[in-house]
Amino acid sequence: MNLQPAEPDAPFEQVLDALLDDTCTIEPQLISRLSDLEGDAHLKIRALWPEIALERRLALLEDMDSLVEENHILSFEGISKIAIHDDNAQVRFLAVRSLGVYETTELIPELLQRVENDHDLNVRAACAFSLGRFAHLAEMDQLPTHTKKAIQECLFNIVNGDDEDIVRCQALESLGFITHLELPNIIREAFKSGNTSWQASALCAMGRSCDSRWAPQIEVMLENPLPLLRIEAVRAAGELTLSDTKSQLIELLDDSISEIRLAAIWALSQIGGEGTIDVLTALLQETREDHLANFIHDAVDNVPVNEDFNFYGLMDFDDEIDYSEEN
Fold it and tell me: Rounded to whole angstroms, what are the CA distances from 200 to 28, 108, 190, 203, 227?
């Protein structure tokens, strides 16, 4: 396969030509030229977008996500705003997922429309998930009252509606950020449903609720044999800083699922308290893996103060877990 020459200061026309040439691979430097797209450049890409081969459009969105993870200065919001209107459902899904890292309020009407009307199930679910970021902002009084009401009504309609469970469960998780009299009953019913997906989403909503009433349910689920429920319970225990769960979380540092072990480390850092630093330091001394050592270092640094709420960090591990069986 031919490689497109990578020039950091390449003319924008070269970027356009590369997008249309699906016989070559576009180097990261050229993709980076699509960051902060606006004005005439944005109009050119929007006009050109339907002519770009489907596989190239999909690969481009995946590559942009990878670049943003490596370099947080980059912003491909402009491309994603174009891609969200694509005829292909997978392209729209990737666009919604990419837009999830931005807090541009102009995205809200698009998400509200697509979460109910997009023809693709996964796109609707991704929109329901992305609305959680704005539900959190609304609860923090960082959005107008009418916008908060629109988000709230939309999410309640979905949870109480007849869409597929994956969409309704994501809507419940996003509702977890919102204070509403009806929400505890909805969470309770989901938790009692016996359906693993609904129980997991209920645990997620519990953790986001800032309501310690859920401590008994969370403590029970920390012992659950299903990895999906254990990891959501661990995260909820950390978000609610449930100090009574520390001994259970320490036991989960030896869980057979690596992602649950990582979640337990972070939950302990959120809870803090006497002995937490000692536990994490001992764990650090035992590890021989650099990436794990770095993670534990971050957890230790997180112990004294937990002021920053990292919404999307809650789901960092999900794509890597095989929930079907213990590993």
Answer: 37, 26, 9, 5, 10
